[in-house]
Amino acid sequence: MTVMKTSMRNFFAHKGRMALSAVAVLLSVAFVCGTLVFTDTMNTTFDKLFAATSSDVTVSSKDASDTGETTNDTGKPPVMPASVVEKVRGAEGVKSAEGTVFSTSVTVVDADKDSLSPSSGAPTIVGSWNGNDARTMKITSGAAPKGPDQVMVDADTMDKHDLKLGDEIGVISAVGTHTARISGIADFEVTNPGAAIFYLDTKTAQETLVGEPDVYTNVNVTAATGVTDAQLKKNVLAATDGAYKVQTAKETADANQKDVEGFMNVMKYAMLGFAGIAFLVGIFLIINTFSMLVAQRTREIGLMRAIGSSRKQVNRSVLVEALLLGVFGSVLGVGAGVGLAIGLMKLMGSMGMELSTSDLTIAWTTPVVGLVLGVIVTVLAAYLPARRAGKVSPMAALRDAGAPADAKAGVVRAVLGTLLTAGGGYALYLAASADKAKEGSLWLGLGVVLSLIGFVVIGPLLAGGVVRVLGALILRVFGPVGRMAERNALRNPRRTGATGAALMIGLALVACLSVVGSSMVASATDQLDKTVGTDFIIQNDGGQLVTPEAVKAVKSTPGLDHVTEYKIAEADYTTPDGKTLKDTDITAADASYARDLRTKTVAGNLADAYKPDSMSVHETFAKDHGISLGSKIEVAFKGGETAELTVRAITSSDVVIDAGSKYTSIATLAKYLPADKMPLDQLVFASAKDGQQDAAYKSLKSALHDYPQYTVRDQTDYKEALKDQIGQLLNMIYGLLALAIIVAILGVVNTLALSVVERTREIGLMRAIGLSRRQLRRMIRMESVVIALFGALLGLGLGMGWGATAQKLLALEGLKVLEIPWVTIGGVFIGSAFVGLFAALIPAFRAGRMNVLNAIATD
Predict the structure, then answer these.
(1) Which helix (H) or strand (E) holds 592?
(2) Strands 215-216 and 642-651: what pairing?
(3) Who wins on pLDDT, 753 or 561?
(4) Residue 186 Ramachandran class (φ > 0 left, ψ -120 to 50 alpha, else beta)
(5) Residue 168 to residues 185, 209, 599: CA-CA distances in angstroms?
(6) Which portions of the sequence form the region Disordered (predicted)?
(7) How many angstroms separate the Cα of 434 from the Cα of each of 429, 439, 636?
(8) Residue 729 pLDDT exceeds 60
């Protein structure tokens, strides 16, 4: 009980110092709990949606995916004949069966040809209005579609695009473009995460999405009273002779949930990973806080020992303070995490993914995880200072000698830090020397961990030399004040090292990712310059295929020298070594593609691969299967006939663009695939006539005005798009790393604040002999700047080493250009100085307000 009272008294006696440490715990716990609540809420939203929209049993084509979405490269959904509906209706236990048609491989535009598709990446769904949808959608205005000139739209899409009844919209599919006017508005009975839904009548949907009547993509089956879904599925399978895919409501919902699960898990574990980094940085803050508090209470600890307190009691007293800190910070963190989750939901809503707070899901495990994690991390971080407090002998403490210096510990630290750093450096060397990326990535991971731990351990030993150099370059210009700031930073190298290490971790990751991102952009740009000969690339950034109408519009554009179509088909290969490779891609393009992409060959001429019944393979594939020029490969095209193609060229495997592709001509593909099985174009390439590039560029954009889903880019645009894409990813990662950097800044603030308290008498004496308040504040700010720059130097140097090693592994995949983003690195270094200035504002202000006489009188 005495230990608890002592701990409570000390905790509240230093509540200001504890508050900063509690904020670090709070932020880290909030990020963890916010992530869990946010992802659980998204899962709940999708669970409700999929459960509500799934019929008791769904029948679809064998070629359909488990989620029922379009899987056909022709751009049309896989369908079944209308006769299947009558077969299903005849199955025992069927109450009703209704055929429907829907597709997600569509684009919908308004009268101005602006896309109505969600910007969040959610699907655009066009389908026939049916009884199953009527269960989950309520018509709030107008009426359901009853003819080819009518379409019904979901309420969310109407609001987002300011649409109204009677407005004209166009549905662009592989079949063509169909226009209709809005006849009704339907609202979701459950939360819509952001999909855009458009309903046509059944006949119009068949003609618009498939191009033929009397076919369905799905049959929605309702069970009779007392019949289970499992029994109904069994009966429907028997009635249809197992010719179709049959799924229960649960199977359909599970398949849909699994479809979004991958994205959800990536987001969840990425965010938890950054929360872990914040926790790691917070550990340094807590260690520093308790180390300094123990040092300031040396005489008090001595008195406790002198009157009978044991080492264990002193140790326990500090750990109880840490426990109180952990509980306090974690409880607030759990609450803040719920707020963060709601904020993320609002942010996603502004991006088009609607999430309702009515679906907010807080599992009982979330606060438990937050509390346990926050308390354990805090107590573990306080263990070393607590152990050090227990070692203080009564007589040494009463003499104000402080904690005993442990020279042996310093030697151990030096040896261990050197070994870890050397081990990390050697692992990075092995990674850079690896012949295979997979093997090298393992060494890279080990090197990153060992070198990071090594720098943390050896940081206090490096502090002396680095701070002196920084002092000579930066602080000496400020005269005596600068020299005092330098000495203050050097006074306790362990504290300076730990404070700098907190900032080092975040900046090391920033530097590493900056190097990797810049190198990827530079390498891809280099590859584009060397290999891409076409002037323009036309593609859908969302991954949809290029419709025949759009290809026709491109080909009719004036000023073009040639247009190249680019398709990917699936086939089974039987190679000369007798092996059969299932579901392997083959790339079919026009012969002009040999000029559009200057792919290096190791044997033969790539242009010959586009001759009738010819193909090319890449170097690795040829070596693996004993293929040489003139070899015959049996290619069984999916949905078509089997061809015997002659290998006319072997391309280099040392490329980035189209790596691993096997080429043939579109004419050869058309010879063995029926017209209705021909895949749509993945991309379309176009080259202008000499001197007409600018005019052709404008003409292409104009020609594709009616098809907003496609983007026309010249090589400059393509490079910028690549740079922007990687830049957006890096900015998102930097944003998440900002949490760790904020915690590191709190660490600098806390260190300085406690350091000011520790030096109260000294500050009073300096003021008494003439040091002004302004000079005192400047001294503290300069001390903070040099600590921040120390951490920045270590972090940036370490991160650039990691990034350069990672680029060596990328070089094995063809990304061979190493580029150090010196502007970014320099900006981060300079920014670190401002971080130091910002962190010192409050401690410097408080130091300047000290009463001189009271400070001198402090014991």
Answers:
(1) none
(2) unpaired
(3) 561
(4) beta
(5) 14, 18, 46
(6) 60-80
(7) 9, 7, 38
(8) yes
Please report, to the nearest 10 degrees, the dihedral formed by the alpha carbons of residues 349, 354, 356, 360 taken in order. Answer: -80
- Bridge partners, 688 (sequence order): 560
The token duo for 41 is 């809420």
- Hey, where are the domains in the chain? 1-52+256-404, 62-243, 460-533+715-859, 545-708
The full DSSP string for 138-153 is EEEEE----STTEEEE
Q: What is the pLDDT of residue 310?
A: 67
Min mean pLDDT across 145-149, 372-376, 472-476, 570-574 is at 472-476
CA distance linking residue 127 with residue 58, whole number of Å: 15
β-strands 177-188, 711-714 pairing:
unpaired
Kindly give, in sequence order, each residue whose CB lies less than 8 Å from that of residue 263, ignoring residues fewer than 6 positions away: none
Residue 18 tokens read as 């504890």
* Cα distance between residue 421 and residue 437, in whole Å: 23
- Please state the three-class secondary structure of 383-408 as a single string: HHHHHHHHCCCHHHHHCCCCCCCCHH
Q: How far apart are CA 234 and CA 232, in angstroms?
A: 5
654 φ, ψ (degrees, to nearest 5): -90, 60
Pick from 407, 330, 397: nearest CA to 367: 330
DSSP 823: H
Phi-psi region of 265 (alpha: psi -120 to 50; beta: other; left: phi over 0): alpha
By three-state DSSP, how is residue 511 classified?
helix
Question: Helix, strand or coil for residue 14?
Answer: coil
pLDDT for residue 148: 93
Going by the DSSP 8-state scheme, the letter that residue 255 receives in this structure is H
What's the pLDDT tens digit per position in 249-275?
A: 888 888 888 777 777 777 778 778 777
Report the DSSP pairing between strands 124-128 and 196-200: parallel
Q: Is 588 helix (H, G, I), strand (E, B) or coil?
A: strand
Give the 3-state secondary structure of residue 563: strand
* Least confident window among 185-194, 232-241, 353-362, 625-634: 353-362
Pairing label, strands 168-172, 218-223:
unpaired
Q: What is the DSSP-derived secondary structure letter of residue 224?
A: P
First to last CA, the chain: 29
- CA gap 545, 567 in Å, rounded: 9
Which tokens sit at 577? 């070594």
DSSP state, 476? G
Contact by Cβ (8 Å): 85, 219: yes
Q: How far apart are CA 204 and CA 543, in angstroms?
A: 26
DSSP 686: E
Q: How far apart are CA 549 and CA 537, in angstroms?
A: 17
Report d(CA 2, CA 97) in Å as an integer.
Answer: 75
Report CA-CA distances (Å) from 237 to 54, 66, 244.
18, 16, 8
Nearest to 563, CA basis, from 530, 532, 536, 531: 536
| Dist CA 551 CA 724 (whole Å) | 27
Q: Is 658 helix (H, G, I), strand (E, B) or coil?
A: coil
pLDDT band at 301 (very low <50, low <70, confident <90, very high): low
